[in-house]
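Model: Ready when you are.
Researcher: Fold this.
Model:
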Amino acid sequence: MKTKNILLEIICLLLVVLFVYAATNKMFDFVNFKRQLGESPLLGDFSNVVAWFIPTIEIIIAFLLVIPKFKAWGLYASLILMSLFTIYLFIILNFVPREDIPCSCGGILNKMGWKAHIYFNLFFVIMAATGIKVHSYQKKHKIIYPTTG
């Protein structure tokens, strides 16, 4: 049972690192991030709002994941956000000429190819889903450790 708790904490930690890293990179290069969003055929018209929304929601999710009482909310939000990012990338990869669309992810994530980015995102989708399953199991069986809430 303790192994599941460790797994849950590792999953949450990796998601926190991902979201804080991504949000920080977007905010430090905000002008470029907003410009790249503006070039997206799917998000261009909403780039002003999306440019603020994405890093803000990433930071909020990171906080939810570290507060034991809100860990489940953070895991569900992680699953939803990473799924949306993955769907967006799938659409870009399959229906939009990629040479026309810059990656607006920032940092080292910006260096990934589109397919690699989809696999990267799918990895985190699976991690979030696994975290939800482990957290639900612990709640159901009343196996609550001090760090899981």
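Researcher: Now this one.
Model:
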Amino acid sequence: MPKVKRGRKPPPDGWDLIEPTLEDLTRQMREAENETHEGKRKVETSWPIFRIHHQRSRYLFEMYYKRHAISKELYDYCVKNGHADENLIAKWRKTGYEKLCCLRCIQPRDTNFGTTCVCRVPKGKLDEEKIIECLHCGCRGCASGS
């Protein structure tokens, strides 16, 4: 018999609209976490998890801020229950960060020279022949000017 969750409020109206997508992304996240790491570099093991996390947050961002398909109560409920990253969504709302892949890419303490990640550099400024991937999340370019 499943555990009864006490003290939780039922989800707000509109939950049935986004629930199938969130369940599918949760299933994909579970598969990515259980995926074998054979033949991958150490940094590559977490890239699928970052991508799914980004996709889930972006889905809720689009539904609330762009399409206006969900209510403020439902958006707050999703953020509170961990379905979206509130800090990442806050950055997406600022100019120049519309395509940001993860928050680690803009933190200068995580890089060798105290700057942002290489994926934040516009593609026109880099060598065209080289394929550059972010070490943190595997992104190949999230600068808004790209």
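Researcher: Key takeaway?
Model: Residues 94 and 100 are 10 Å apart (CA to CA).
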